[in-house]
Amino acid sequence: MADEPDVSRRNFLKTLVGLSAVAAVGGLGKAVVQNVVTPSVGLSSFPETVLYWVPPGSNSGTPVPVKASEFPVNSPNIWIYYYPLTDDPNFLINLGNSSNVPQKISPVPVTIDATGVVFQSPGGTGPNGSIVSFSAICQHLGCVPPIIRYYPPNQLSILSSILPGPASDYPNGVIHCDCHGSTYDPSKGAGIITHPTYKPLPNVILAWDPSTDTLAAKNMKGPTIYGKSSDLSGGTPLSNLQKTLMIQMSVG
Ligand code: FES
Fold this sequence. Notes:
The protein is mainly beta and about 250 residues long. Helix content is about 10%, strand content about 25%.
């Protein structure tokens, strides 16, 4: 239906999660994930797509536009939406400190180690400048959530043997992939903290409308989405290019 966000992606995410679990057990990694991608027409340009969700605690279950001021800080659950194509999951994260106070995220230069190319991250958006968004496909071998996920500051003790410095070096948490140990800094454009990845996560450029408090994805920066030659091809366009539905995934 033209006016509804693309709810069909729920099923696709379940497929990804199921396959990721199989990959984790069987050590198959990205090869399995990429095989579910069906080549198709793609897009000629990035759409501007408003993020929808069913807010936590909603009685109606009806998707509505995400209100940036209501989006949880340091959410313990994973929030995913698809953009620019239906096989492209992305994180939406409201970064906060250890007291769950949202933190303004400034644009910074980010190096793609694999190529030496440097790009400028967009920084945070929303009323506190704290909301960021990145591809949720690991740039090493393509593992997907929940195997790759955001660890807020109060969960960094889980990664103490992996992180190269004390938790205080990562005051806004990290994104970590359990497949092989890659770690990314969400407060620095998802730049690399630990290998084996040699590429940061692609950054989604968000637009925040202060008059409505809504968020829209409108472009991407950084490396190409893992497994693709172009962000705009190799998958299927959203059924409604103006809206995409956020999906919440529990951790463990
Ligand atoms: S797929 Fe290897 S670290 Fe993520």
